[in-house]
Amino acid sequence: MCGINGILHLQSQKKIDERVLVKMRDSLEHRGPDDEGLFIENNIGFGHRRLAILDVSLTGHQPFLSEDGRYVLVYNGEIYNFKEFYPELKSNGFDIRTTSDTEVLMKLFQLHGLKMLNRLNGMFAFAIWDKLEKKLTLVRDRMGVKPLYYSFYNETFYFASEQKALFTAGIPIKMAQDGLEEYIFNRFVAGENTLYQNVKKVLPGHIMTIYEGGRNTTYKWWNLKKEIQNQPEIKNPVEWFQETFDDSIKMRMVSDVPVGVMLSGGLDSSSILASLHHQKYKDIQTFNIGFKEKEHNEAHLAKMMAEKFDYGFQTMQLEDKNLYDQLISSTYFQDEPIMHLSEPHLLAVSQMAKPSVKVLLSGEGADELMGGYVRYKALQYPSLLNSIASIGNLDVFTKQPRYEKLTRYAQINKKSDLVIYNGSNIFPNDIAETFGINSSPNNEYRKKIYKEAKSLYPGNLRRQALYFDQHTYLCSLLDRNDRCTMGSSIECREPFLDPRLIIGLGSLEDKWLFTGKKWKFILKKAMEERLPDEILKFRKVGLSAPWGDYITKSPAFKDELESFTKSDLFQIPYFEHINVKKLVQNLQKGEATMTPYIMPLFMMHIWMKTYPTKF
């Protein structure tokens, strides 16, 4: 696990400035405190910071050069099945000189080129420079677990694991109007675009090739729709799920350093713990974030599960000044305004885990694969939404935040928008009424994914929403996990995102997902003999926090809330019609329904005030 970065001057006569490359590399020190490396040759330069997980010796050093001297590799990630390729490589004349997956990745590339990608089970973002053909190839894993950003600027191509390395190189920090609109309407920017001008992402499952002179091509090497369509029928889904899930966890325990579990106490992380126990793993450490507010707290369940399996357990709470300080830190590590609102908590729990482990297993992805969010239920009977819209002013609906949100969601008329805005907290009508912003974002990438989802699951809004979220919302969650854990120099692994599970679950009939009161039926069925009823039947909490109370009642946020009402944010023309003082006054009166309106603005205010000062 690492931080990677590089520079390619598109004019071959221009030489790399080593100082710029080193600054980029060292801005990512948190991603790799164990080792650092540099490769410079004429107009190409690579930087690398290493967090040693597999082969912690110096033989795992990067940038990694092929033995024939033709290729140079910088790589961030883990190939969990790398040892499976030893016999094949040896039979083709390759010596295996290390115990690292980096060497296997390089030699597979030499043997098969990029055709080897479909055989890899792992998470990865890597760059390979071909000295002979003078071309740079960037590759990102199937689901985008590992980040990879790039910029064409001043006849130079830059890439890095995080945007901050690009800004360190001198690329201006400028918000893109389209990105700003997506942040307000959709909570995050989806697809290859970002919040910034001149900064883009390599899309998950894509290959980008850049040649001297600037010509570049992009190719999709993994297509989930096609994979689902080509999946053979699964005869016994529960047995298949148990076996595949257990094997996925076994693969993700491959490590030369200690592995722990991020244990919320919910179904997903508890299922990981139950699988580890079933497979007789010993001495596992678990880490939990708790809340003093009972309705947000699952720490008691997490503690019960750890004790049940005789595993270690550590928990903490994050409040007042500690919460404020972690908010500032997580904003820096995130490189954008935080939007899930759990980033400070994940950063804090990762810091708590750091003295004990270097790797954490997470339950991320289960909800998007198996229908775990309550918001999907609104799509079960779309016709009912019309009825709710017509009676939405009744007190029974407007006085409870969940129902109040449903009445606002029910105002959406188009089925495509019901999917596209399903993960939002405020909707176009709300934004027009409260912010005075009437034009919705282009959302070209979201519309493209919706079209793909609709063709795969025609007439099935719930399945369309799952597929849509797997390409959008889940990407933002994975980015959050990566930034918060790597901000503490810890690697995060997601067993639910094994490609066999992603494809297989996508091919199953609805009944395996949407049966029962709380859905995720196949997971509950597979775990019913491993988990107690307290976990299987507990009301889903998720990592949510009462931010409205935090910013209005915590002493640490008092000055910041006052600063927010006078923020430069509201000088931006896009926000000129927002009456921020009125919004804050309503929140201070205890109107919880104001929280989803205020938090994206408050977090953008924090970002504008603190982030650009770091460069």
From TrEMBL:
List the GO molecular function terms.
asparagine synthase (glutamine-hydrolyzing) activity
* Pathway(s) where this gene product acts: Amino-acid biosynthesis; L-asparagine biosynthesis; L-asparagine from L-aspartate (L-Gln route): step 1/1
- Identify the PROSITE patterns for this entry: GATASE_TYPE_2
Q: Please name the Gene3D superfamilies in this protein's record.
A: Glutamine Phosphoribosylpyrophosphate, subunit 1, domain 1, HUPs
Pfam families associated with the record: Asn_synthase, GATase_6
The domain of life for this entry's organism is Bacteria
Q: What is its EC number?
A: 6.3.5.4
What is catalyzed by this enzyme?
L-aspartate + L-glutamine + ATP + H2O = L-asparagine + L-glutamate + AMP + diphosphate + H(+)
| Top EC class, one word | ligase
> Would the keyword Chloroplast turn up in this protein's UniProt record?
no
Q: Which InterPro entries match?
A: Asn_synth_AEB, Asn_synthase, ASN_synthetase/amidase, AsnB_N, GATase_2_dom, Ntn_hydrolases_N, Rossmann-like_a/b/a_fold
For this protein, the record's SUPFAM superfamilies field holds: Adenine nucleotide alpha hydrolases-like, N-terminal nucleophile aminohydrolases (Ntn hydrolases)
Domain Glutamine amidotransferase type-2 as annotated: residue spans: 2-213
CDD domains with a match to the protein in the record = Asn_synthase_B_C, AsnB
UniProtKB keywords? ATP-binding, Glutamine amidotransferase, Ligase, Nucleotide-binding
Q: Which family does it belong to?
A: Belongs to the asparagine synthetase family.
* Designated name of the protein: asparagine synthase (glutamine-hydrolyzing)
Organism of derivation? Flavobacterium algoritolerans
Gene responsible for this protein:
asnB
